[in-house]
Amino acid sequence: MEFFQRKRRNILPGFGLSMGYTVFYLSAIVIVPLSMIFFNTIPMGWEPFIHAVTAPRVLASYRLSFSTALFAALFDGGVGLLTAWVLVRYQFPGKQFLDALVDLPFALPTAVAGICFATLYSPVGWLGETLTKWNIEIINTPTGIVVALIFIGFPFVVRTIQPVLEEVEQEIEEAAQCLGATRWQTFRKILLPHLFPALLTGSTLAFARGIGEYGSVIFIAGNLPMKTEIAPLMIMAKLDQFDYAGASAVALVLLLISFSMLLLLNAVQEWQQKEYR
Amino acid sequence: MLKPQPPESAPVVKKRISDPLPVQIVLIGLTLLFFIGFIFLPLGLVFAQAFSKGWEYYLESVREPYAIEAVKLTLTTVAIVVPLNAFFGVTAAWAITKFNFKGKATLKTLLDLPFAVSPVIAGLIFVLLVGSRTPFGSWLGEQGIKIIFSTPGIVIATLFVTFPFVARELIPLMEAQGRDEEEAALTLGARGWQIFGKITLPNIRWGLLYGMILCSARSIGEFGAVSVVSGHIRGQTNTIPLHVEILYSEYNFAASFAVASILVFLALLTVGVKVTLEKQFQKNSFHH
User: Fold this and answer.
1) How many structural domains comprise chain B?
2) What are the helix and strand counts (H, E) for chain A?
3) In Å, how far are A36, B89, B168, B221, B264 from B86, measured between CA atoms?
4) CB B183 within 8 A of CB B192
5) Fewest CB within 10 A of the end CB: N or C in chain A?
6) Considering the entire predicted model, what is its pTM?
7) Domain segments of chain A: what residues?
8) Quick check: B250 contacting A, CB < 8 Å?
9) Contact B241, B266 (CB under 8 A)
10) Is there a contact between A213 and A149 (Cβ–Cβ < 8 Å)?
């Protein structure tokens, strides 16, 4: 957006005041509270820390959170790309309505989403009844967790792909067509590489969100030890026993995973900007 | 995010290459199928369950004293959280977009930090900071101040979770608008607050409003973080989502979904307001 970026002097008033308040508020609400995780983990010492985060139940919960978030992010990648494509490229009645509803998972409280899916897929629920007949179990299984996470992560993918798809120039596709490419070839060789960074960004956001998600998952998960206990639930369990150090240790690992996802995302975005500018 | 959409330039009628009709029908069909399974069925279910015991039971569940206390607590939280975070958002966006300084990128990343933190961890950090078993918390307790398992705890956890919403809406918007208008006002002799009140605020009003709406929606709906710090005391530290959870875990599904239907209604309202504001935004950018 900044054309002809030259070195500009700061002439507007209020820098000290606004900057001071920003740093103060950021520290008070975010930095200092977050640092408590480190201050509660450090006195533990290395061995108890390793012991706490590699307990079989904790490891199982990490594995579960990681894998379900990954599956959900992959599914969201596909369905998000499809939805963005349909919403940007096609005209059909009710399109704006669908477009608006993409944001629903952002706006709907996670607990409400949680009880909805748990009821929908319960053995007497609208979908669960049929699925039970086919011997497909959703509730109290990792599949159920994936279902909830698909819902939570879906808008991230659609909303990152949509603007990129809208900006694709018509000429590129026309040129491809003139050169004899089929529609599918044009999509695979021209459009998909162009959309890929956005797809990756959206899916990573969905993944990062999925790892830490709590409200929508716990109702459908059933929370069976070693089987369907997600990592945030382990923190909750340790807190209930007043094991603050243990809770911090589990949280620290989860935070490190999330932060490295964010760093990865920044790297992807930088690469994306270099590629397309 | 509310995106500043440029006005369509001269209406050049051009035929867009499109996919063959059968492909379109199949793809639209698949999308609809996903929406039915993941959006429409859950929404329909909420209302079907909420009214499963009839209108009277619905009204009773929504008007029951504990439900009303939960609504009150949630509204109190929103009334404290949204202005604080909105004020912060405007201040941070002003500092970041109107000045050049070192470490701007780092500051922006730090602002987004709460998005990367699991809600449960968001609750945990405040238990570790001011919980009754910590030095600071026990000192506060001696002074008769209780934070965790009471309203202030719910408020600060919600402050953390909704921290970036307003700033995130305003920063890209104000970056796009630049500082030329403010600088022109300055050379014409306007003072700091005049510049802000007469130039900046009108320019960012829709973005600010939208950020505040997102912030309210999340404050109303936050579950994980609040669940950790609340202690689930009925009539005292129960927000609406926590009340929904308690009713659900007591197998009182009709009442649980009845209260949840209020939240669904608010979520739909949020989505509707976003669409309206985006249209407003498009109209406005014509005048620029």
Assistant:
1) 1
2) 15, 0
3) 26, 5, 11, 18, 24
4) no
5) C
6) 0.90
7) 55-275
8) no
9) no
10) yes
A80 φ, ψ to 5°? -70, -40
Element (H, E) at B227: helix B224-230
For the segment(s) A55-275, the CATH number from 3.40.50.300, 3.10.180.10, 1.10.3720.10, 3.40.50.1380 is 1.10.3720.10
Out of A183-192, A219-228, B71-80, B185-194, the most confident range is: B71-80
Q: Across the interface, do A174 and B159 touch by the CB < 8 Å criterion?
A: no
**pLDDT tens per residue, range A25-51:** 999 999 999 999 999 998 888 999 999
**In this structure, what CATH number is given to the domain that contains residue B129?**
1.10.3720.10
Instruction: Please check whether residue B197 touches A, CB under 8 A.
Output: no
Chain B residue numbers touching A244 (CB-CB < 8 A)? 127-128, 131, 133
Parent domain of B132: 43-285
pLDDT for residue A186: 87
Rounded Cα distance, A140 and A121, in Å: 10
Per-residue confidence band for A273, with pLDDT thresholds at 50, 70 and 90: confident
Indicate whether B180 pLDDT > 70. Answer: yes
**Closest alpha carbon within chain A to B262:** A112
pLDDT band at B281 (very low <50, low <70, confident <90, very high): confident
**φ, ψ of residue B64 in degrees (nearest 5):** -65, 145
Termini Cα distance of chain B: 21
User: Any idea which residue has 């206990």 for tokens?
Assistant: A229
CA B125 to chain centre: 21
For an interface test with A, which of B120, B136, B187 has the most A Cβ atoms less than 10 Å from its Cβ? Answer: B120
* Contact call for residues B29 and A86 (beta carbons, < 8 A): no
Helix (H, G, I), strand (E, B) or coil at A241: coil
CA distance B130 to B159: 15
Q: Which residues of A touch B268 (CB under 8 A)?
A: 104, 107
Q: B155 in a domain, yes or no?
A: yes
Q: What does each C-alpha distance from B241 to A27, B149, B156 come to in angstroms?
A: 28, 16, 17
A168 has a pLDDT exceeding 70: yes
Q: Does B52 reside within a domain?
A: yes
The answer to whether residue B6 sits within a structural domain is no
**A132 phi/psi in degrees, rounded to 5:** -65, -40
The answer to the question of residue B213 being in a domain is yes
The CA-to-CA distance between both ends of chain A, in Å, stands at: 12
ipTM here: 0.90
Structure tokens at B5: 């959409």
Question: CA A73, CA A80: separation in Å to the nearest integer?
Answer: 10
Beta-carbon pairs below 8 A across chains A and B? 274
